[in-house]
Amino acid sequence: EDIFAHVFQLKCQRRAEKDYPQPRGEKKNTFIKYIVGGGCLIGIIAVIWFPLVLFALGNTVGQPNIPTEVALSLRIGAYTPIYQYTAQNYSIYSLKEEMWEDMLNVYKKSRAAQTFLSNYEYDDIGVAILGPHSTVVWTISPPDKETLIKDLMSNRSMSVRLEWTISRKSTIP
Fold this sequence. Notes:
- The chain is 44% helix and 16% strand.
- The protein is an alpha+beta fold.
- The protein starts with a helix and ends in a 6-residue tail after the last strand.
- Residues 95-171 form the Piezo non-specific cation channel cap domain.
């Protein structure tokens, strides 16, 4: 069995010498090593980055897309929402250039605000007008209302949750 293993090893070596004509132990040309290795590296990078670039360039990047619907909900503790409102259509509009300049002047002294606002143009901003009155009647039961009043009168802290949902037109063709 030892003889067969040795013969098999020799056969594999002869086949490798025939398939790869460079003698064993001899140094490969540095230029060839860089061409093969660099080509493999560029190939791997292309396989990973090509789909990302394709999808990034396929979408409309840099085009303003103001919301089509803005919904807001305010709740105190675990009780039902005390305020709900949804702005649509004519309640949402693009910011005018004069309004943008006025807003920039308000935050002129704040370096952090100026840094944040410098990433945007006036037409990137959408203004949603929310009404002062909720569109839904607050349906709280009398016992829950009394419990809420007691909780508010006590010194315990209560959570106030403000939730908003913003919907935009899809940019996918």
